[in-house]
Amino acid sequence: MLLPPLQTFGLxxxxxxxxxxxxxxxxxxxxxxxxxQDAVGDPWTTQQALDASAEAVWIDVCALTRTDFPPETLxxxxxxxxQLLVDLQGLVRTATVGPLHTxxxxxxxxHHVEMLKLNDEEAATLVGSAEPERLxxxxxxxxxxxxxxxxxxxxxxxxxxxxxxxxxxxxxxxxGAGDTYSVAYLVQRAAGxxxxxxxxxxxxxVSTFLAER
Length: 213
Fold this sequence. Notes:
This protein has helices at 46-53, 71-77, 89-92, 120-127, 177-190, 195-212; strands at 6-8, 11-13, 23-29, 32-39, 58-61, 83-87, 98-99, 115-119, 142-146, 152-156, 159-163. The chain is an alpha/beta fold. The strands form 3 sheets. It has a 6-stranded mixed β-sheet. Strands 3-4-7 form a 3-stranded antiparallel β-sheet, with no helix packed on it. It has a two-stranded antiparallel ribbon with strand order 1-2.
């Protein structure tokens, strides 16, 4: 059932009824997040995704497991000139309850992706290494390799460049930092910023987010 749109922070929010909601338990070991998958949510249908994206051109796809956005749904979202930023976590995670399991069985969905964000563990799962140069093999126009307090790498066909993180004083809970980075980067790219500039702004936004929470 499609519920009426809500206005949150001036933006429309559309809710879809689901038989299950994704749920996780986790703790951190430094920058590394150790996770347990407690439940898996229903997948987005093509029509639901298109309804939710409305007239958007730049779209942040934040899947939690690879079944959230099936290949046909990603293909539909990427049609008509839309630009997708996809977090790799949702492609390499299997839809199994228990200790979080990842593998590289993602098919050919990356050809729908304009921007891909991933961390070192996800890079190792997909290409066997977190070496930035190895990420060219993915064939994605823009790749963002985020490494927590060690900053990030921006990888394009013509560029492999490190962007330092912006330090935050004291101990912080990094939950939500990756999502903040993706949204900040996408907003900057949509406004006309080049990848490096967008990554630097995203790093600053993550620092501000962590410092103020």
